[in-house]
């Protein structure tokens, strides 16, 4: 499915999010707060849109994804970025290899997200950071109703006009509704062994950015 949507992935995102993705992505990069020369893993990186700001800032970013279609679009656009094929639940990296790991709009797509959170913990150095950006659940009930209508009616209708594989966007709407809320995801992050998990709601909770730290010593 991701191979299919790859060619028009970024432009469709901008349309369906009504331009919000740019602001969300900026906040994620600030939360990661990587310094030039540090090593960051951008997991489920797709076409590398979420990886570009790190490369632009002199951070060593590895863009990892299991869709070769997405990686090919990314590599042709940004040959300077390291694109690596890999499965989030069985990462092709050594223990403690990165200063930080981040995943934007990807964890919800992984079949076993809790396993991916444990793999992310393994490949980050003790004291290193996790930042997860994912669709979540609006906290204000009237806003939740408007958003739910948008997801189930408007979004698939717009996708039919602009996307190469509109069915993928029906999946998008359904997977967002089925995803745990902010506290539910925080519990998964804690359960995988991360510490000090906190989150910030964006656009009233349409997106949540969770951050956590790998403990310095096991136990
Ligand atoms: C919605 S895209 C997000 C791409 C990018 N992070 C962004 O912000 O634009 C989700 C990505 O998750 C990838 N993905 C899903 N399951 C995966 C897995 N088990 N391992 C690696 N990548 C996975 C898909 O191939 C897809 O490229």
From TrEMBL:
Its EC number is 2.1.1.163. GO terms for molecular function: demethylmenaquinone methyltransferase activity. The keyword Disulfide bond does not apply. S-adenosyl-L-methionine binds at residues 47, 65, 87-88, 104. Pathway: Quinol/quinone metabolism; menaquinone biosynthesis; menaquinol from 1,4-dihydroxy-2-naphthoate: step 2/2. One of its GO terms (biological process) is methylation. This is Demethylmenaquinone methyltransferase. It comes from Zafaria cholistanensis. The gene is menG.
